Amino acid sequence: MNPSPFVASGLQPRQRQDLAVKVLSKKSKISHLAHEEGVSRKFLYQQKDIAIEALNTALEKSERENEVLYYLPVTHSWIFQLILKQLSDKFLEVKQAVEQAMKSTPRASSLVENRRFSSKKLFFLKKAPRL
């Protein structure tokens, strides 16, 4: 490239990123890279520092994950609404299961009545006919 004092100011963000990656890769000396690209070594060091700062910021997840984002006041009514919401999601399934169980299970009172009726015939002696 042609060395010009204004080359660095005319670079697009992607070109600046590419220069920073080349500096960070350490494949060539900064002075050689500056001469090839037509920029100053100071500019390349600045791009390197910006890239390192960006990488550090991007990789500092653990500290940000533990950071308190906001405080949530929890009241009794809020907890009650939460529980109702959790139960309402399962209510239809439980209702259908109970209805199915009721359809397939005979009523206990009808069983008792049927047994009582049939046992009357068995346990009561008939009077002998009079002669």
| Contiguous runs where pLDDT drops below 50 for at least 5 residues | none
CATH topology of the largest domain: Arc Repressor Mutant, subunit A
Main beta sheet strand tally, sense and closure: none
Q: Give me the secondary-structure category.
A: mainly alpha
Count of extended strands: 0
**Intertermini distance:** 140 Å
- What gyration radius follows from the Cα positions, in whole Å? 43 Å
**What's the shape?**
rod-shaped
Any descriptors?
6 helices; 131 residues; 2 domains; mainly alpha; Arc Repressor Mutant, subunit A
Task: Give an account of the 3D structure.
The chain has 131 residues and is mainly alpha-helical. The protein folds into two domains: 8-59, Arc Repressor Mutant, subunit A, CATH 1.10.10; 76-123, no CATH class. Helix content is 69%, strand content 0%. The protein has six helices and no strands. The protein has helices at 13-25, 30-37, 41-59, 61-65, 76-104, 108-123. Helix 2 (30-37) packs across helix 3 (41-59). The radius of gyration is 43 Å and the shape is rod-shaped. The termini are far apart.
What's the helix and strand layout?
Blueprint: H1 13-25, H2 30-37, H3 41-59, H4 61-65, H5 76-104, H6 108-123
What's the quick description here?
The chain is mostly helical. The protein contains 6 helices and no strands.
